[in-house]
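Troubleshooting log. The previous structure file for this entry was overwritten by mistake, so regenerating from the original sequence record. Sequence copied from the archived sheet and checked twice against the printout by T.R.
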Amino acid sequence: MSTPPGRSRLQGSISRHGNPRIRHLLVEAVWRLLRYQPTYHAVAKWREALLAAACSSARKKKIIVAIARQLAVDLWRLATGRVTAQQLGFATAYLWSGGPPVGSVWCVRSTLDAY
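Regenerated output below.
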């Protein structure tokens, strides 16, 4: 279902449904992304809000969950070959110093296994 131009699409709130281990893994991965992958598009999008002086702890957690949701979507897109790591803004020098090409399914799975 597409939305008319100029209108936003409401998707509802982020809930705690799903595998809690995967949710925890995604949130922890986002905290690492903030430090080691500042060029990742979702991190860049939310960086100003996270660094704002008026950003409360609860607000930061909500932003982290929003980035975690986008990370899950982007990892799926990466694993299915729809995008490359460079298109998502990942600095690939941090991921590998050799080995399989970045963006391959094996690369994404082994990166997740490290957490």
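The radius of gyration is 15 Å. Archived copy saved in two places this time.
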